[in-house]
Design a protein that fits this description.
Layout lengths: L1 E5 L3 H12 L3 E5 L13 E3 L3 H7 L5 E4 L5 H11 L7 E4 L5 H12 L4 E8 L1 H7 L2 E5 L2 H12 L4 E2 L2 E2 L1 E3 L5 H29 L4 H11 L7 H10 L10 H4 L9 H12 L4 H13 L19 H30 L5 H8 L16 H10 L1 H13 L5 H14 L5 H12 L3 E2 L6 E2 L9
Parallel strand pairs: 1-2, 1-4, 2-3, 4-5, 5-6, 7-10
Antiparallel strand pairs: 6-7, 8-9, 11-12
Helix pairs in contact: 1-5, 7-11, 7-12, 7-13, 8-9, 12-17, 13-15, 13-16, 13-17, 16-17
């Protein structure tokens, strides 16, 4: 089929080549004139948006690969005057799912379909097969899934593209994917710092982590972490880990994940800790940079590995919990087993532990099996002044889930004392007030 593609950045260009290789005629355009200089065989780059639209046959399908937010709204508004009823616009960027819901409503007034497509895998995935998460009406799904299956990688013989419900469902799944990704990346980084505190340089730590990537912790992020720790600067020959600034960037999806978890009342402390770590790293006014971590003795590499396994398992459990609650809240169809299958190839998050993603009980059991190692790693880190926010938050989360009684009983008394918010009697659920209010009925 003839496909329109707007946005010729790295992701857009690689997707254009992927669609071309799958047998589609790609007609492209970019708002930036310089980007329109790009050329590739059997990809037509048009001089104007109007020319692109005219080149597409009836029932047009146009994929937007532009920066999320206003650029999407602006381009969609421009397309409103050029497209016909029944045409389809797909947003393949990292959009906030609420923006996607808004775009769906705005286009529906004009009879134009709008779909949100979460795309994971970076530039390499875009070229060779990205993991894709689709949100749209069912009629549009039936048109788009066959198109997208042709450029998707496969896991267990099935293409790694799935539909998760109407409007913003696909972008919500991609958002949570990225939130989980934040925590997994930070947990691996914390494991590296503990290895460094035990005396390993970047090369040695990279070799240890690369070894972990061969077992049940196998995954893309583990593989590349082992690789980059052993990489050297081409100009100086210095290990890159020794010269890179430690202020980590972010593009919003981690923060959106945490905000949605707060709004839906779902605990995601590991993801929240990872977000906080990036925020602290990027605030020089908060950082004295005076402390260097102490050498930690008696820290076994297997202990660090097992602590990492527990943290990743709990992060996955928290992300799955958020997806399940959101699916019910919005009337979506988010199946955790489908999400895991889609993420198993092409996705940045692809890893062996995803095999248990649909079974939160199995993930928590894996964390329990490694709880002692996680606790020992947190103790060692604390003694050596090594910050491990994801490890520590994961441990506290696990212990809270296991506790017969939480300290929040006192929080409820405090709330009733200053705000008369009321109490519930243990065992019966009977409502009452504390004696400080006189009438306890």
């Amino acid at each position: 089929m003839k496909l329109g593609l707007i946005g010729l950045g790295v992701m857009g260009r690689n997707l254009a080549l992927n669609f071309r290789d799958a047998g589609h005629d790609v007609n492209a355009w970019d708002p930036w004139p310089k980007a329109r200089d790009w050329q590739a065989g059997r990809v037509v780059v048009h001089a104007s948006l109007q020319e692109l639209v005219r080149a597409l046959p009836a029932l047009r399908v146009i994929l937007l690969m532009v920066k999320a937010g206003e650029p999407v709204f602006d381009l969609a508004a421009q397309l409103d005057g050029l497209l016909d009823e029944g045409d389809i616009v797909i947003d393949g960027g990292n959009a906030h799912f609420i923006d996607t819901q808004t775009s769906v409503m705005l286009r529906a007034k004009r009879g134009i379909h709008f779909a949100g497509l979460g795309v994971s895998g970076g530039a390499e995935g875009a070229r060779n097969g990205p993991s894709m998460m689709l949100g749209c009406d069912e009629a549009v799904r039936d048109l788009l899934v066959p198109l997208l299956e042709g450029i998707a990688p496969r896991h267990d013989g099935k293409p790694c593209i799935a539909w998760f419900g109407k409007d913003g469902a696909g972008h919500f799944v991609k958002m949570v994917h990225n939130g989980i990704e934040y925590a997994v990346m930070e947990a691996i980084a914390e494991a590296w710092q503990l290895l460094a505190a035990s005396g390993l340089d970047g090369d040695a730590a990279g070799q240890v982590i690369a070894g972990w990537a061969q077992g049940d912790l196998a995954g893309y992020l583990m593989e590349i972490s082992g690789e980059v720790l052993q990489a050297r600067d081409l100009a100086s020959g210095t290990p890159v880990i020794d010269i890179v600034d430690d202020a980590a960037g972010q593009k919003g999806t981690g923060g959106w994940t945490v905000q949605q978890a707060v709004d839906l009342g779902v605990p995601v402390p590991s993801i929240m800790a990872a977000l906080t770590a990036r925020q602290v790293s990027s605030h020089p006014d908060l950082r004295s940079r005076s402390n260097t971590f102490a050498y930690v003795t008696g820290l076994q590499h297997t202990m660090v590995r097992d602590a990492l396994r527990a943290s990743i398992a709990l992060t996955l459990a928290q992300g799955g919990h958020l997806l399940s609650v959101a699916s019910k809240q919005h009337g979506w169809h988010i199946d955790l087993a489908e999400a895991a299958r889609v993420w198993r190839q092409g996705s940045i998050l692809r890893m062996a532990l995803l095999d248990d993603f649909a079974d939160g009980t199995a993930l928590v059991a894996a964390a329990h099996a490694n709880r002692d190692a996680l606790a020992q790693a947190v103790i060692a880190a604390t003694q050596g002044s090594v910050p491990v926010p994801v490890f520590a938050s994961s441990l506290s989360y696990l212990d809270m889930c296991d506790a017969a009684t939480l300290p929040t009983a006192l929080v409820q008394l405090q709330r009733d004392r200053f705000g008369a918010h009321g109490l519930k009697r243990k065992g019966t659920g009977e409502a009452f007030h504390g004696p400080w209010h006189g009438d306890q009925s």
